[in-house]
Every structure is written in C-alpha cells, then in structure tokens.
Amino acid sequence: xxxxxxxxxxxxxxxxxxxxxxxxxxxxxxxxxxxxxxxxxxxxxxxxxxxxxxxxxxxxxxxxxxxxxxxxxxxxxxxxxxxxxxxxxxxxxxxxxxxxxxxxxxxxxxxxxxxxxxxxxxxxxxxxxxxxxxxxxxxxxxxxxxxxxxxxxxxxxxxxxxxxxxxxxxxxxxxxxxxxxxxxxxxxxxxxxxxxxxxxxxxxxxxxxxxxxxxxxxxxxxxxxxxxxxxxxxxxxxxxxxxxxxxxxxxxxxxxxxxxxxxxxxxxxxxxxxxxxxxxxxxxxxxxxxxxxxxxxxxxxxxxxxxxxxxxxxxxxxxxxxxxxxxxxxxxxxxxxxxxxxxxxxxxxxxxxxxxxxxxxxxxxxxxxxxxxxxxxxxxxxxxxxxxxxxxxxxxxxxxxxxxxxxxxxxxxxxxxxxxxxxxxxxxxxxxxxxxxxxxxxxxxxxxxxxxxxxxxxxxxxxxxxxxxxxxx
Length: 473
Ligand code: 4AD
What we know:
Radius of gyration: 26 Å
Order of helices and strands: HHEEEHEEHHHEEEHEEHHHEHHEEEHHEH
Enzyme class: ligase
CATH topology of the largest domain: BirA Bifunctional Protein, domain 2
Strand content: 15-25%
Bound molecules: 4-amino-1,4-dioxobutan-2-aminium adenosine-5'-monophosphate
CATH architecture of the largest domain: 2-Layer Sandwich
Pfam families: tRNA-synt_2 (PF00152), tRNA_anti-codon (PF01336)
Protein name: Asparagine--tRNA ligase, mitochondrial
Number of strands: 15
Structural class: alpha+beta
CATH class of the largest domain: Alpha Beta
Shape: elongated
Number of helices: 15
Number of domains: 2
GO molecular function, one term: ATP binding
EC number: 6.1.1.22
C-alpha cells in the first residue's frame, strides 16, 4: 500500500523553490529554475534591465536580469512566474541572480499600486493593511511573529508543558476590570429577549481561570490565543484584540515562576535570532537609524537582555528607589500604596536598571485582581505574591502571580470584590478537591513583538489590528 501511495508522501517541495530557499541554496550557476513572486521594483536601462522579485519569504528578494523587451512587460506589484538560469552575482555579496528566459504575468498591476519603492509611514501602511505585508517591514514582521510563536512553544514543549485550548466564549470576567465585550447572537431581538446561553456571555479577556482548571490536573499547561478587551485606551500599547501566552504551573513558588517567565522570554529571543537573522538585521538597521543617539541598536539591546539576569525588586523597593530621587520631578505620587505609572516604570527600567527588564513583585493587594495569593507576612499593607515584568520603552510585558489556593480565603476575596461566588463554584471547587499551590503568567504577545522588532506601536506588529474605533477588514 505504501509503495502505491508513496508519491503523495514525497518530501520534495511541492512547487517551484521559494526565493529564500533559492538564495540560500548552493545550486550551481547554469541551473534552470522557475520563480514565482511579486515585482518589488523595476530598473529599466537601455541595454539591460533589472527587477527585484520577492515571494514574501525573505527581505532581500531575487534580482532578475532582463532585456528591454522583457522589462517593458513588468510593473511594480505585478504577480509573475519567471523562468530562467541562475548566474553568479557580480556584486560584493556573492549571491545568485536570475537571467530571465521567459515571463508569465499571473496578475497585472497598474500604476495606482500604492506600495511603490519608497519608504511609507507606518500610519499610512495601516490604511492599506491588505497590502502591508507586500513591503519589507510588513513581511519581515509576520515571519518574525511566526518564529516567536515557535520559540515560545518550543520552550514549553522542552519543559514538559501541555498546550490547552481555552474557550473564547465565557461567562467570566477574569480580570474583573469590566472591560469585556458582551456577545449577543444576531438572532436576538428586543422582542424575544433571549440570550443564546441563557446568561450574559463575553469574549474572553484571559484564559487564566481555565488554564488553572487544567494545571490542577496536568501540573504544567499553557494556552495561547486571542483575548479581547473593550479598553478605550488610544495608546501605542493597547489593542482591543491581542494574543496572550498564558502559562499555569503547579508545585512552584513565586521565585520559580519568575525563573520560568525569564526562561521563556530569553528562549524566544534566542530562537528568533537564530531562525530569522536576515529579518532581525533589517529591523536592527531600521531602529538604529531612527534612534541612533537615544538607544543602543536593537540587536545590541537584545544581546544584553540575553546575557544578564532580569532585575528583581519588590514593589516596596521600587517605591523606595523612586522616593530617593530628589532631583527627579514625577507627575504622579510615589507614596507607598500608589500605583506605578508609566513615568515610574520608565525610570525604573531605563535609568535605575540600565535598560534591563525588571520584575516588580509583591504589590499591595488592593491594586490587583481577586485570584492573587495573599502574602502571609505583609508588613505595612496586605500584599499579594505577584509580579509585573517591566521592559524599557514598552512598559508591562508580563503580568503574573501565585494563585490563592485556600478555598476560604479565595471565597472571602471574591465576596469583597463583589463577585457572584455561585457563578465561580467550579473555580472554588478546584480549591476544595486537592488544591495545589500554583501560579502563572500572561505574556502580551504584541508587546513581546515590540521588544523583538523595535517597532513602537502594537498596531504594527499584529496582522490585522483592532483598536477602539477601528475594525476594518
Ligand atoms: O496583566 P494582564 O491583564 O494579566 C492577565 O490577563 C492575567 N490573567 C494573565 C495571567 O496571569 N495568566 O495582561 C497580561 C499582559 C500584559 O502584561 C500586557 O503585556 C498584555 O497582556 N496586555 C495587552 N496587550 C495589548 N493590548 C492590551 N489592551 C493589553 N492588555 C494587556
């Protein structure tokens, strides 16, 4: 049977080689190849013309050498199939070029194509999101995003985690912030007034409570999916739909949770640097040009992040540091109990900790959600065993905590938070039947992408962004 079907199980490529594989291969000059892609640019000259062809698998693209007649057929943006012969590039970087024999135009493109060969602003590119990935920045971003996801998953696979798919539709507001999107079926009219689930239902803001369900059985789990927040914050850090990697682990303490968080982020950075060198060099140049004087180059910054341990300090330590800055004028108070604002976070990461990520732990209980584990030995005010990971130029990248595993304490906290404990009976039961000490965290994937690429706005690092007032496509 196998021999009959073997031809369908071939490991050979299923179409012509990608531009990336062609450029990276050691195919000899003289080899005949077929290349598919889009024309990025055409340089027409009297005797000999050049076109850059890219199928979106790499930054550089393939240089095609054409005669004037062939060049006349090509326009920027057109989709083409080129047949030709590989030749050695005469340029400094010894690569390959394509001496074109024949051109098949698969899709014409006229002069109104907006992605012409010049630098567009990111704001403008967002308005043509359907074409954004045809440019170098948009394409490189998607490939790095893919690699980052693989890096994260690789870390968890290597550390014996099981990936769980948590639901998108839920009846809970995990973070208790009331920033939920309510789900109403299209068939519901005011007249019949029926909800589909006979109870208010929302798009999830976090998969954490469900992840806890499974950490209480499989010890180490993670979930990776889209979450939704009806936040009206029009900032460069907030989306209405974003992706979150949430890990949940039994039998650990807070310091071990920080180790896992740091390990998963460093592993992901390493994976991206190893698998996307061309893209990362591209982003490095982009960030370097813009911020040359202010910031170290992206690759230097990431290298430093990998080489040194993340700083760890308590909320109390952070407040002390802020208060010991007589010369520094902060807009918001720095008294113990007040919440850390962006200006404080910026100071802690960029100045106090010299551009290294900082874990701030053990915040006052009243600043944090109901599920966080109360510390037993709080001095001035009750605190919880939690952390925020703050990163230079980005702010909060990760939020996490030990979870309150004592049934009675948890029930009390829920009541104080004004929650309907009946609705969360299952969550309390996890504490009744063999409750395990456990903790977890959520990485905002788009903010991780900012860290990896040097982009400054989360709208640039998600394929199709959604933010308040914007749901095109
Ligand atoms: O701090 P948050 O709200 O934590 C939780 O949701 C926990 N339940 C996670 C857990 O412990 N399993 O969000 C986690 C991270 C933030 O640190 C931030 O990086 C990102 O999610 N984030 C956003 N990213 C983009 N747009 C928004 N509106 C975001 N809100 C939070």
